[in-house]
Amino acid sequence: MRNSGTNWLGKVTNDSLQRIYAISFPSQKELDEYIHFREEAEKRDHRIIGRQQNLFHHFEVSPGCAFFYPKGTHIYNKLTEMIKEQYRVRGFQEVLSPNIFNLKLWKQSGHYQNYKDNLFLFKSEDTGYGLKPMNCPAHCVMFEHGIHSYRDLPLRYADFGVLHRNEISGALCGLIRVRRFQQDDAHIFCTPDQIRQEVEDSLDFLQHIYGIFGFTYELQLSTRPENRLGSEAQ
User: Fold this and answer.
1) How far is CA 168 from CA 56, 99, 138, 204, 228, in A?
2) Residue 181 carries which DSSP code?
3) pLDDT tens for residues 177-208?
4) Contact yes or no for 192/198 (Cβ under 8 A)
5) Alpha-carbon gap, residue 144 to 213, rounded angstroms
6) C-alpha span between 195 and 13 (Å, rounded)
7) Cα separation of 52 and 56, whole Å?
8) 114 is in which domain, residue-wise?
9) Residue 118: strand, helix, or coil
10) Is the separation of the CB atoms in 110 and 136 below 8 Å?
């Protein structure tokens, strides 16, 4: 059994709750196998390894944000160098975008209306702003600036900037679910007839990187939750 904190309906303004997880097995043998599996998994828990090897730690002064020590920073930088090189050989151009945007942009993109609870919002000189949780709107702003010929496409942007998401405290977990992070966030601007090839190349890219670390993945059809971007036609 285990437990975790959450809020009613996932909203931080609602009452705090405790989730209780439990599992049962038809036989003692299956229970023993599960216990052994859990024990082996704990030996590889990145939170335990990070603490034991002094790679990173979390502190109350910045909840949900990791403090990387020298060895952890070295590993992080090596991974970043590797992935940046892989982006370059696949025709991506690295860009940098701001961390703070006027609320006008988040309202235009729909993030404010649908994901306001997950944004870090503040005011300065009576103007509303938000820390970016992803780079999509920023890259669209950059692409919109100037005139592009079809000969310029596909145009591939890669961004490794800092992102912030106001995750509820009960959902925070090591480096898997955090409030401040960096990701290899990329966007491709292309013509309709280029989409198939770009999707195939992206899946090949993913499989190559995952293969380096021995990861596997599965694909699932995305549903249409109540809070989503885009119209039915889109």
Assistant:
1) 21, 21, 25, 34, 19
2) E
3) 999 999 999 999 999 999 999 999 999 999 99
4) no
5) 37
6) 41
7) 9
8) 82-212
9) helix
10) no
C-beta of residue 116 within 8 angstroms of C-beta of residue 131: no
Contact 5, 18 (CB under 8 A): yes
- Cβ–Cβ contacts within 10 Å for residue 216, how many? 7
Report the candidate in 67, 181, 174, 189 with the shortest Cα–Cα distance to residue 132.
Answer: 181
Task: Give bridge partners of residue 94 from the DSSP assignment.
Answer: 158
Cβ count near 162 (within 10 Å): 11
Q: Enumerate residue ranges in the chain where pLDDT < 70.
A: 1-2, 10-12, 227, 229-230, 233-234
Q: Is residue 51 part of a domain?
A: no
Q: Residue 129 falls within a domain, yes or no?
A: yes
Q: Which helix (H) or strand (E) holds 186?
A: strand 185-189
CA distance 42 to 44: 5
If one counts the domains in the chain, the total is: 1
Q: Is the pTM of this model over 0.90?
A: no
Q: Has residue 222 been placed in a domain? A: no
**What CATH number did the domain enclosing 208 receive?**
3.30.930.10
**Does 172 map to a domain?**
yes
